[in-house]
Each structure stands twice: as C-alpha cells, then as structure tokens.
Amino acid sequence: MNLSRRATFIAKSVGYLILVGAAIGTMIPLLWLVTSSFKTANEIFAVPIKWFPQLPTNVKSSPYINQNAYPSIKKPDALDSSVWSSLQGQISTTIWEEAQKYITTNNRMQNYDRLLDADLQREITQAIWEQFISRFPNEVWSSPTQEILNKIRAVIIPEGIDSIWGAFYRELGIGSVQIQDMNFDQITVKQVKWEREAENVRSIRRYAGDNNGTGFSYHFDDNRAVRVTASIQSPTPANQVRSIRIPVRGDASYHHLRLTIDAGGKTYRSSEPFVLTDSLWRPSIWRLQGQPSKLESDQIVMLSDDHIQGDKTTTLRLTFELYRPPYLAICWDKLTSNYRRLWETVPYNRYFINSIFIATASTLLTLFFCSLAGYAFAKYRFRGKKILFGILLASMMIPFQVLLVPLFNVMYKFEWLNSYKAIIIPFSVGAFGVFLMRQFIVNIPSELMDAARIDGCSEFGIYYRIVLPIIKPALGALTIYSFLGSWNSYLWPLIILRDESKYTLPLGLANLVGVYRQDYGMLMAGTLLSLMPIIILFLAMQREFVQGITLGGVKE
C-alpha cells in the first residue's frame, strides 16, 4: 500500500514538473518579446544571443571606443594549443598593421591617434577576426605560418574596415544644413563652419563624404554644456523658413542635443532635445513655421518670442548645445527609445483606437446574434431545424480564403470598401459562436421558459431576462474568442482598407518592417503594447471562459 501511494506521489510530481516545464517553455517567446522591446538593433541581432538589454555606457567624452563590441579571439579547432600560442600574437600584430595602413589615410578616421591604446587595438583586431578570419576553412590553418599571414592580409580591405568601424567607434558628427521654405523648396547651405564656444570642445574637424559632416571631440569636465555655433546665409528670409534639416550622427551616449537659432534679434529655441540614441546618421528636423503633416510627427518644434520682430534677415546663427543628463535619465532614454520612436514614427494611437473600436463592435454584435441564434436552435421547434444546424456546422469546414473573392464583391456592391462596416458586419455572427451558445442553452430546463410564458413574459423578455443571465460563462468564453479573432485579423482589413488613418494594429505593425525600413525594436514594442488589451480581457473573464468551455461540452 505504501509502495502504491509512493508511486502515485512520484507520478503526480513528475506530471506537475512536466507541466511546469511546458509552461516555462511557452513563456520563452514572451520573455524574448518583452526584453527585445527595450533593446537596440545591435542587441537584438547580437551573436551570441543577449536575453536582456544592456545598460548604456556612462559617456563623459567623445570620441570613444565601445568596448566588448566583438567577442574575443578563439583558437581554431584545426590548431593545437601549442601552435596557437605562438601564432596568435603574430596574427594580432598583422591585423593591426594592415588596419593602420587604411585608418591613417582615411579622413573620417584620422583622429584615431587620440584613441591609440589597447582598447582600440583590441577591438579592431577582434572585429576583423570575427568578421573575416574566423570563417577560414580548416585547410588554411594547416598551411605554413607565412602563408596564413598572407591570406589574412588579403582579406583586410578598406571596405571591410569601413563596415566594422561603426560597431565600436563612437563620434558625434553634424552633417550639411538644409533649409526648407514655406513652399517646401529645400536648399542645401554650403560652407558651414562650426566654431566652439566652450573649452570642453577639444577639436572640430571636417571630412568629405559621409554627409559632408563635421566631427566633434568633447569632454564633460563639469556640468557645463558643450556648445558649438555657426553662422549661415539663408536663401530665404527667416520668417519664411519652414524647417531646418541637419543630419546628426550620434555617439550612442544618450546625451541631449538642443538647437538655438538667432535671426536678427528673434530667437528660436527647441521645445525638446534630440537624443543621441545610436551611432548612425539620422535626420534632425527643427520646424520654425507651419503645421506638421502626418509624415512629420518626428520634427522638433522651435519656440520663439512672437512679440519680437526683425526676423526678416537672411543671416542665421545656429547654436548646438549638448547636455549630459543624469545617468538614470540616460538609462530611461535608452530603455524607452523604441516606445518613443514608435509613437513618433507612426500614428500608433490611431491604430490602437481603430482596433479597439472594431474588435469591441464586432464582439458585441457576435454575442447578440450568436446567443439569439443559439437560443432558437436550442429551444424552438421548426421545420428544417436539424438540416439548418447541419449546414451551419458544415460551414465551419470552409476555409476563409475561399470566401474572400465573393465577400469582396458583396462589399463592392454595397459600396462599403475602405470602411469600418466592411470589417465589422460580415463577421458579426459565426458558426462556432452559434454552436457554442446552442450547446450551452440546450441544458437550461425548458420549465423555466414555460413558467415565464405563464407569467406573461414575451419571447424576447425570456431571452433577455432568463437565458442571458444563465449563459454568462458561455458569453465570457465567446467574448474572448471573438475579441481575439477580430483583434488579430490581418488579411481581411488589408484587402478592404486603403486609408492609413483606418488601419488596425496588425496592419500598422506590419508596416514597421518592409523593404526600406527594418526596425524590429519598434516592432517588438508595438507588439507588446498590442497584447495588453488581450491580457486584461482574459484576466477579467478567465472564470467565465473556463466555465463556458467546460459546461459547453455537455451533451444534450
């Protein structure tokens, strides 16, 4: 007897452990989704995989080297440890010598000597090894030492160094200035010369190509802002300047960049900072006049003193001020950058409202019509009842793709294309919902309805006052099924809707990844936010959902 109990206990324990393991396994994709919504693009695609976002570096000076951008050099499998110990130093020296030949002649990298230390040499050596040399076949490593070094020299080319330089080298750069007038004509200002206004700006250098930019070297000795200025001649008077576009290559320091424009006594100041979130060239657009369009939501508004006149001058003095916020603010900017860019890049709030409206309306109509039809099939007798119910069940076997063309033709005849009606009404009743309601209502004693009729209650009153309160568990289950199906619907809204202002969340999120834009960080952030209504709905109705699924399966 004790052995039997022990065996039962062990079997139950193993079963529970399996269930717990399966639950943890199903949570791994959700964990990846949550953590990736706080990551940068480099962290999302990092090899080996990084499960959690990294805290940003507390940068005090720039340019600087991003350490540990690439993994350390590892011994090839084809080499013995004794051979590798003598060969590794020669390989590192060869890589560094070949890389220096290009770096010293490249205008964009010419200030490398400021960072000529062990960090720079280690990072560029590890980068070249990881990107080009680690993929050598095993036959190469069996060659003589000099032949191996020659093959290493052959793969180190300028294009390769250019591709890896941005992974570990961080430098603030400002590109050419472009002015847009009120007629939306855009003109590039030539020969912009930036000058330093603070001692913490160590050097300013220009380099050809690469957005015709200017590189800055700075150091925060104290809390003073880094400040550089430039005077430009605008092709149009200041009061006719709509916006100024200046490409900025950040140094991934998450420092705040603000712009001040002095136009003949009238001063424009940026309403919010441009945050240096990454090390790529990104356009910073500072809008002085006019209203932004739908595609200009990421522009920074310039505020001015409206009572001051004299802004008809064509001489503009630009002043960039760089601030170093507290480290907690830097961490907040880094972890929430995907969410902020999501709201700035696409009308996410509009997508969210559209999805809430369509899913709610479709769910309410589904609950009403399906419960009404299920009540009729369960408690009324009429000719062809079983045949109609069989046809209803058979319709569940028809793939939705088969109905696309005829359903689209119907919407076209009704002139419902590009409207919410075409998304909501065709799916306001479904065979599964009618079947679920019928299976639940059929177990309600008919004597309750008979007693209500004797008391003078109408047929709709019986449905509303007696049937609906009893089938709340089934309604809860159908609510989750219907809301989830409408919320995640992609194909039908994609075919029907043409106006982006009517897009639902699945359509809006799909636009974040395309041929010309692949921002998976924003996609993860948007997907995580889209899960919130589903999770809230399930937590609110989980009891009714479980009861509805359990009791709905009872046979008549």
Describe the protein's topology.
Layout: H1 2-36, H2 41-44, E1 61-62, E2 64-65, H3 81-103, H4 118-133, H5 138-141, H6 145-155, H7 158-168, E3 169-170, E4 172-174, E5 177-181, E6 186-189, E7 195-196, E8 201-206, E9 214-219, E10 226-233, E11 241-249, E12 256-263, E13 266-270, E14 274-275, E15 281-287, E16 300-304, E17 315-323, H8 327-335, H9 337-345, H10 348-379, H11 385-395, H12 400-413, H13 421-424, H14 431-441, H15 446-454, H16 459-470, H17 472-487, H18 491-496, H19 505-510, H20 520-551
Parallel strand pairs: 15-16
Antiparallel strand pairs: 1-9, 2-3, 4-9, 4-11, 5-6, 5-11, 7-10, 8-9, 10-17, 11-15, 12-13, 12-14, 12-17, 13-16
Plain-language structure description:
The protein is 49% helix and 15% strand. The chain is an alpha+beta fold and 556 residues long. The protein has four domains: 2-36; 64-169, no CATH class; 173-326, Jelly Rolls, CATH 2.60.120; 348-551, MetI-like (MetI-like fold, Orthogonal Bundle). The strands form two sheets. It has a 15-stranded mixed beta sheet that branches. Strands 2-3 form a two-stranded antiparallel sheet. β8 and β9 form a beta hairpin. α17 packs antiparallel against α20. It starts with a helix and ends in a 5-residue tail after the last helix. Residues 552-556 have low confidence and may be disordered.
